[in-house]
Amino acid sequence: MATEVCLIPSQALSHPSHSVGAKWKPKKKQMKGQTVSSLIPSQVQASSSHIEGSSMEATKSLSAQDDDSLPTSSPSSSGNPNGNDTGEVAIEHGESTRSNGIKNINKTKKKKSNSGKKNGKKGKNTKKNNNNNNSSPQIRRHGNFPDVFWRCVPMEHLRQHPNFVPLPLPESIDHIAELEDIRWFRQESWQWDAIHEGRCTTSQAVAALGFLEPKAGRILGVPRSFHRGGMGAYQRLRRPALRTLEEMNAVLCSQNHNASSGHQSTSSQQLQQQQEDSSIIWLPYRGGGGNTKNQFASRYCIPVDEDDRQQRRQEMKHQYHHSSNVLDYSVRMTWGNTQESTALLTALNYFVQQVGPDVKLCEIGMCGAGVQLEGSKLLLGATPDGVICHPGGRKEILEVKNHCPFFESGMRNNNNNRSQSRFAIRPGKLLASDGTKKAGVFPHYVPQLMMEMYCMGPECQSAIMVRQTATAGALIIRIYRDDEWIQEMLYWLQRFQSDYVDTGTPPPPNFFLVEPNNSSEEEETAGVGVDHNASRARYRKFLDWTIDLESKVDLLDHVPNNRIQRAHSATPGTLVDLFLD
Questions:
Q1: Which residue, 239, 295, 424, 473, shows the most beta carbons closer than 10 Å to its own?
Q2: Which of 303, 291, 439 is nearest to 357 (CA)?
Q3: The sheet that has 142-143: what strands, in order across it?
Q4: Are strands 462-468 and 395-402 parallel, antiparallel or unpaired?
């Protein structure tokens, strides 16, 4: 039986400057000479040590490149398996089509006024031809150096958004009053990493549930690339953990307390500096963001500069020649992390447009430290990518998944040299051609979303997932909390803890589905007193239940590429290529 204790502190999800025991000290912005990679969390940079960002200079105006006036296109047009379809990518770089697009409209109107009324069919053909003659140049679908920072909006910039509520700097937190206060530590902080030790977080829960085992994975339809077994979760949960408030204060806040002694809280001058920095990055639209005319809540003013791309080109070239064997994995992992804040911005813009300008997107750390599971040593923790705070007080956790557009396609010849481009752009379809949902929430993501809602507290009754691509837009999906399923999930997580972690018995392959006559003596000992036949039947029912939940989601919107806010080109009329070579 699980009880929820102290899940929501009194200051939870209020502005960090008002939080108890946390000294809000905004970081002074250094726009010139700052690299994009310096704005990405440190653990992301570790996975791509040679792929860094580049210097970005602030601009206070964006007169010729309004993202809210881009031409629209059907998102279903992307996804040619032959890799020749470039229309959807061109729309993503739509800023460059704006000037030509206006000319196209004017020419089309003149043509239609002269001949369209007499011959409607001929008028339509004339419009099509004019658009083709003035269309944007095609984007390459193959290359050797993928740009994993392609048009990304860094997290440090998103934190300055008028509708975004950031967490305080980790070094400003010198005391936590209750266990749930650890949610104030940012994801890129060393404190956030330390809290994971010995704790069952969402990344380990899906493995501890057996969803990544071969048999269960086949039943759930989990891709084979995700199959990794339960040994990682077993080893994580065997480590010593921070359990008490005293331990957390001693480890997480002692250095901050010593560093902050003698310093006063944020001055009005510092707050004013933060507001000035924010005005450089984000500007309001006429009439305000979130109305029917403006697609985005605020205008993003930081362009992509060719000098930035040139720096990344040299670094990627170095990695291409010196880290060739792990380059594909590094590209996929780094893309998902660097593009995370851009996907968060997609969700923020959507809800500001649909609900109103008072919607806030709140940054949050690990939740669930105050959850107590009766009779179990299991510790839980979950870190949503954000929390959507509605004007009426309703909160929804937000999780984003970025589908990497690059896949390795090149082959080597006899001289061990690549005979063609190493990477290509995958089709990236999100919806079937008939407009129906191809996939909502994959079964192996269900535990993550349910656990995040549970750790957030009983007032969180739904979760939002954004699945974003570079070539096919984004899906915004809502899944609802199922407390009965959550209790069944907790049962199996506690079984993993008691059967394997507490006994020091490594989990065998296909645990929870292993046949008794195929198990070793140690594996039998791990399940003493358990009716294995009844246990397997119950577990199989749990898997079927999870599959059923996958289909019970609401597809809120398929956001086309021209409605995804990204960094624009510094040169009007220039597309930003997905490749650096």
A1: 473
A2: 291
A3: 142-143, 423-425, 406-408
A4: parallel
